[in-house]
Design goal:
Length: 277
């Protein structure tokens, strides 16, 4: 049988060996952590400097793909759907670059290489991310929204298309028959011009006092009316001459009082006289 002394010695030796192994593993873990931290700091220095060109390249790629997507919407919707997913991935990658920049700054701050300044509005994440995919006032629209918006813009551009004809360079001649046909096509019954024609026929003196431009429109209407063969009777034009009463003279120091209604009655208290109102 093994005595107690032998067992105690063996236990002590095992405990020492365990402690030594634990110290070795702790030292190895610390050395590995220090190495990782050192590599992280080196990466952070490099990333802070390289972020801008990386972001420019990624954003330009997303912008170029977006332009190709916009063009494809009016040509090939299947291609547009694929490009929509491509541009979404490229925008997400550009946003991820901003997240990595925040990580690099945090590493350098933790290592004491950068001051712990709160960079409000300076980190390209969240509302300051290069591309807003799912939120924000300028978020990237869904595929259906993008197609609808693009087609609406293209339709607006197409609707503004102008004729290729240039009236100033036209060398043809309009015959009398062609002019008559144009007048017939352009005639439209207008009661105000019917009244003006009645004034021309029934009260030529009053008609002659109209503005020349207004008379020119009436004459043009008469030509379209005749070309269309419309011969309905003209309405009766009534011309009234309204006189302007002379003002009633009053002396500068005269006081004039008006009494429109008597007490309790809704009628004039007395009729006006020639020298008083």
């Amino acid at each position: 049988m093994t005595d107690i002394g032998t067992l105690t010695a063996a236990a002590t030796k095992a405990a020492e060996a365990l402690a030594a192994e634990q110290d070795r593993q702790n030292a190895a873990a610390k050395a590995d952590a220090d190495a990782r931290q050192a590599r992280s700091i080196e990466w952070a220095w490099n990333y802070v400097v390289s972020y801008n060109p990386r972001q420019v390249e990624a954003s330009q790629k997303a912008t170029d793909t977006l332009a190709a997507l916009t063009e494809a919407v009016t040509v090939d919707l299947a291609l547009a759907a694929r490009l929509y997913l491509d541009v979404t991935r490229e925008m997400a990658f550009a946003n991820a670059l901003g997240d990595e920049l925040v990580k690099a700054r945090s590493i350098l701050k933790a290592a004491g290489e950068l001051p712990g300044v709160y960079r409000v509005g300076h980190d390209p994440v969240g509302d300051n991310a290069p591309f807003h995919l799912t939120h924000g006032l300028v978020r990237f629209p869904s595929f259906i929204e993008l197609v609808s918006e693009t087609l609406d813009k293209q339709r607006a551009m197409a609707s503004r298309g102008q004729s290729g004809e240039t009236p100033e360079t036209y060398e043809g001649k309009a015959s009398d028959g062609l002019k008559a046909e144009a007048l017939r096509r352009e005639w439209l019954l207008a009661q105000e011009f019917e009244l003006m024609l009645a004034l021309r026929e029934q009260h030529p003196d009053s008609y002659a006092r109209l503005d020349p431009a207004q008379r020119a429109h009436v004459e043009a209407y008469a030509r379209t009316r005749a070309a269309a063969g419309y011969d309905a009777p003209l309405p009766t034009a009534v011309v009234e001459t309204v006189g302007v009463p002379e003002p009633v003279p009053f002396a500068p120091d005269e006081t004039v009082r008006f009494r429109l209604y008597s007490e309790g009655k809704h009628e004039p208290s007395h009729p006006p006289t020639p020298d008083r109102w």
